[in-house]
Design goal:
- The protein is α/β, with parallel strands linked by helices.
- The protein folds into two domains: 2-172 and 349-363, Rossmann fold (3-Layer(aba) Sandwich); 189-342, 3-Layer(aba) Sandwich (Rossmann fold), CATH 3.40.50.2000.
- Helix content is 47%, strand content 16%.
- It has helices at 11-25, 42-51, 68-86, 98-109, 132-142, 151-159, 173-178, 189-194, 212-227, 241-251, 265-274, 284-292, 306-310, 321-333, 335-341, 353-363, 368-371; strands spanning 2-8, 30-36, 57-58, 90-94, 114-117, 145-148, 167-169, 198-203, 231-236, 257-260, 277-280, 296-298, 314-316.
- The protein has a seven-stranded parallel beta sheet, with helices on both faces. It has a six-stranded parallel beta sheet with strand order 10-9-8-11-12-13, sandwiched between helices.
- Helix 4 runs parallel beside helix 5.
- The longest helix is centred in the N-terminal third of the chain and has 19 residues, at 68-86.
- The model is unreliable at 366-372 (pLDDT under 50).
- The protein binds uridine-diphosphate-N-acetylglucosamine and uridine-5'-diphosphate.
- Uridine-diphosphate-N-acetylglucosamine binds at residues 10-12, 39-43, 64-66, 68, 71, 96-98, 131-132, 205, 207, 239-241, 283.
Amino acid sequence: MKKVMLVFGTRPEAIKMCPLVKELRKRNGLQVVVCVTGQHRHMLDQVLATFDVVPDYDFSIMKQGQTLFDITVNILNSIRGVLESVKPDIVLVHGDTSTTFAAALACFYLQVPIGHVEAGLRTYNICSPYPEEFNRQAVSIISTYNFAPTLLAAENLTREGRKPKTIYITGNTVIDAMQHTVKKGYYHPELDWVGDSKMIFITAHRRENLGMPMHHMFRAIRRVLEEHPECKAVYPIHMNPVVRKAAEEELGNCSQIHIIEPIEVFDCHNFEARCHLCLTDSGGIQEECPAFGRPVLVMRDTTERPEGVAAGTLRLVGTNEEVIYQNFMELLEDQKAYDKMAHASNPYGDGHASERIADILEKGEYDPWMAG
Ligand code: UD1
Ligand code: UDP
């Protein structure tokens, strides 16, 4: 029986890997081992609980204010023994976090084949997002199965010289998760607080935005809200203390914003489905909001999700206070501009990505080392 080990460690990886864990566990020909690094703690555990996934291994590496060195070194030290004792036939990693990179590097050192889920996303600016663009490019060099969510992602990989027969277009597993989260009669106390106001949904966490960029983002949001009393913003805040300090300083006493603890993915998708518009620097939210036709102002200089920009639902606004202010104001005051962005479009798959990946792993007939 083929042994498949999945390694993940942060909230977004868990959201996109748990549907795959569930699908792989249905397959008779596969033995599934789940290993979490614990790069995130509470935010990871929230997702594991939602999907009812209990890891076989948990490195619990998270510490407050962890650096990229801490994460990478601690994972490398923890994973070696597990790989040596489990002896997986293949290890699946997801996306572009430090967990992804460190786990893939360990596999490479031990010559364990790697399957990269959500492969091929690119900005081609190695510092943006930082360090994610490096992480995903590095994994592509050593991965033997590349599960690309879209044609564009697959084309990036082909252009970079990855062999076509190692690349599979599967859709994004986040769409699989979304099939089960969004409900019609959904209720949450925050929605009562919002009432008939326009709900603005906010998230922010990117490493390259910590410091002044984040202060500028928050200042712009506050200025717009104060000029638009018909809006109320809900901001489930990331647990990074640096983010929390900046948010408290800039938004703390603004009565139109509720800063709340991280919400479950079930709540998050339902909030997205009901918001008027979203301001974020998140990667995953750029994939989710287009499916609901909710305009997204992406507070970053680059995006690896050009499909959403092409569909018209995402607009890159960077982190300059004036630019965010102008774009946010426009969407509130110019109905045509708003309507132009508010079209449901889902370039990221049909909700069957996990099944496709499981099929490939179950029936895969080529030797990945020969193919890679
Ligand atoms: C990480 C990923 C990023 C991903 C993001 C998703 C890297 C380098 N970055 O960034 O790609 O977009 O996760 O959210 O891999 N913390 C807690 N509890 C938690 C989670 C975080 O207290 O459950 C705090 C800790 O103080 C931690 C800090 O947040 O030190 C930052 O976490 P870290 O994983 O280093 O970076 P993220 O910004 O979350
Ligand atoms: N999310 C969540 N609770 C929150 C905020 C976000 O479940 O309070 C979900 C969101 O729906 C998306 C994912 O977390 O699926 C995005 O994670 P994040 O923004 O932390 O990371 P990124 O996608 O930028 O790597």
